[in-house]
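G.,

No rush on this.
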Amino acid sequence: MIKAFLKQYGPTHRLGKLLKRRQLIKANTPDWQSLLMADRDLWERALQASQSGSNILLATSVGAFWPGMSVEGLLGAALTLRGARVHTLLCDALLPACLDCDATYYRDLERFVQHGPRRDLCQYCFTPAQRTYETLGFVNHRYSQWLTDNDQETINELSAQLSVEEIRQFTWEGVTVGEHTLAGTLRFFARASLPSGQAAIAVLRRYFKAALLTTRAVQRLFQAVNFEAAVFHHGIYVPQGLIGEVARSQGVRVVNWNPAYRKQCFIFSHGDTYHHTLMNEPVKHWENISWNTATENHLMEYLKSRWHGTQDWIWFHENPQIDLTKIASEVGIDFTKPCIGLLTNVMWDAQLHYPANAFPNMLDWVLKTIDYFAKRPDLQLLIRVHPAEIRGTLVSRQPIVAEVQKVFPTLPPNVFVIPPESPVSTYATMQPCNAVLIYGTKTGIELTSIGIPVIVAGEAWIRNKGITRDAKSIEDYFQALDELPLATGLDTATIQRARKYAYHFFFRRMIPLNFFGQDQAERANFKLSIDSLKALLPKQHQGLDTVCKGILTGSEFIFPVEQAAR
């Protein structure tokens, strides 16, 4: 009854979310003060020695993003202990919109249009983050200190004058401001397209202004300080996407990171967000790795664990349905006849430009694929909607099923859909398929490892690895579909190649940083859990050494799991 009341009344609902947010930030904030007191001499010597070291920027920006504060604080301490002079960058309630904002906080959208996050979200963002970085003694920068009154005036005029289409296409001094503006706005709404109405346009303008302010502030900072590298989470959206654009334009090395699937593991990438870099990673990094029965068993045991998420901190079903007989009965499909699987993504996620994609967007791909299969009664199409639509951090406000129903009120009789709320196991349903069609999902890495052919239409990371059929155009995609059903699954050599890449992806690109305790009661997944700063010194943790070396020297972010296993 109380829950229903809180959900019904907007302000109360928003207050509840803000209080929960405050608790999460507090639960995940590291206690650096105690750690520094225990190793004060070590830290003072390290700070002194770092004065002549390379300048490294931790461009956290959004202090309320507690995984960012925990991980980047850890990296800052470790880099200082390795001689680097660490700088930080935080937004001090300057930006009118950012990564931390989303529509769930603003059922009354007009409140956000009028005031942005300053009256609420900003209250729990800059101050605790600044306090943390000041405790560590880093060189701390704020957005506002790098902007003049004239900058603000120019940006105010620009953000108010341009049309929506001009904003989408806008490039400013070589920085693709419009692309990141749109991606950030779509994330706010958790949609793949802007809602109709003036309020949505006003939100777009807020993100556009924030993108312009970020661009100018970071340009000035990079002109004033000679940075060796800029390190920050995501690498997309507002403000992180703009920081990366400016850094690359000014010759500053970019290091982006994100939490990985495996517990206490992270993916780091050079130059850009992993959404781009993993697609084009040189195959020389993995195709000749040592391979034996023990390595293969290690991989296959992990892949099987992903059915239940026992080794991961990102999974979607506690008790997935894996019984094919029950699945067939529930869905209505006949697994004794040729089946082609199709796996969707969350429509709003990482809406960037991917030149290699065969289709303009995922929805267009899904609709055209259904239309194709309507003319192929010899095949069944089984669409599995991504569970993250309703179980992810941001629940999608543009469900793929609803979009499909607009075009196909009644599905063709040979097309079946498993909705996101279904506990049906994606892995179990794809195994009997003759082939699987994907756009951007990571599941292609796992499916090819068990011999299932995969056709890639979008920005999936398995693309360009010599493992999948990668559609280079719409015509090429449908030519691949014309060849279905395939006479056989993947051959032995391709399966081994797929498994080598899967091993590389899950065990070498996902770098362990086992410094974070988990407290489910407090929902604290990124609470720093170390007893001494000495744990962060060189040669104490191979994962941390790999990451710090990559940041300081540009070496590859590949964890030497083969050495660690010895």
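When you get to it, here's the other one too:
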Amino acid sequence: MIDELVVKSFESPDETMALENAKGECVQLGERKFWLATAEPGWKFSRDNGPDMGTEWCPSPHRLYMLSGQMTVEMEDGTRKTLEKGDVALLPPGHDAWVEGDEQVVWFEEELDG
């Protein structure tokens, strides 16, 4: 139940994450975390972030809304989709992702439990 008004801004995030060619700002509202993520041209999860996590495939689920750019997502089974501005997507664990073209990708995401 929501019993109070809470307003936060990504301009003053509660948490930040800096990755190779990508970054994220997080605000927490009650029990929920919301991320504003940015990936630079050339970013690819399996190359830039996966090795630090000891995996080729992202182990986390994602529910996201694309704000700008194009990002291709490939599942372990070979299923591949390119996401673009305005798309809403649910990604299960076991995916790779990379920026398409020379425009940075920005998306909004609600953190999900694995």
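The domain at 15-111 is CATH 2.60.120.10 (Jelly Rolls). The chain has a mean pLDDT of 94.

Enjoy the weekend,
O.
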